[in-house]
Amino acid sequence: MIKTIIHFLVFPGFLFLSVAGGFVSWFDRKITARVHFRKGPPLLQPFYDFIKLLAKETLIPKNSSPGLFLLAPVISFTATILAGILIILPAFGIESGFQGDLIVIIYLLMIPAISLIFGALASGNPLSSLGASREIKLLISYELPFLLTLLALVIRTDMSIKIQEIISEQKLFGPFIGSFSGALGFIVMMMCVQAKLALVPFDLAEAETEIVAGAYTEYSGTPLALFKITRYMLFFIMPSFVVILFLGGFDFKGWNIILSIGKVLLIALLITLVRNTNPRVKIKAAMKFFLVWMNLFAILSVILAVLKY
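Given the sequence above, the corresponding structure tokens read:
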């Protein structure tokens, strides 16, 4: 019981994910600033932003459904921590004893987007509803190629749906990105991660210049802080997930510690460069991109995995 509480609250739960996520978020903002020829924020700026929001008053819209409106960020926050625990535990070589954890992770990683949709709809704001509508369309579009990419990896590991076994397979035969199916899957996964993190060019649900802050328009104070810290954690969880699935996971022995951290930062760097070198696309273009091209790449990855390429 005590061990479970420590996993949830300390490592690899809330405290660890928040600190690691805040650092990766700072790294993203620092690189973005450099791309724009600016100095960028100090290292602790993400944490200052979070604490500042906690001190703000929480306003509840008059025409909202208060229960669902306030519950949405809590559900999103909790699901993200659980997903992080199931991903990070095997990454650090800690046996969770959880069979089929990959399936549970898939569901948990969907919950933040679904929670945002329900929270936005519950706010009673038309701009929030528009943001929720866009998020629904995006979710429908990118989840299928995301699942197909994972299917290709499952096929490569003799139908294993356990993260620990996916890592072990790569330690024996090399990272999956070194194969044709793995390279294609990596491209698809990176685009899906970009959409899951709601970053340009797929930040359609919040699009500040178009719909104020979209799904987040009516949120303030602690609920907005929970959404923000959830985004921080996901910015660490998703790159770590990609490293585990395609780059052989982590190794925390000797100099390999630096290499493992470098892998996460490399994925975060790629995500940051994509969002700083592309304009926001229209929802129709985003849906076509995922439903046509990314699905095509993902299906090809599955076929190549079946053929052992």
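Residues 126-156 form the longest helix (31 residues). Try to locate this feature in the token string yourself.
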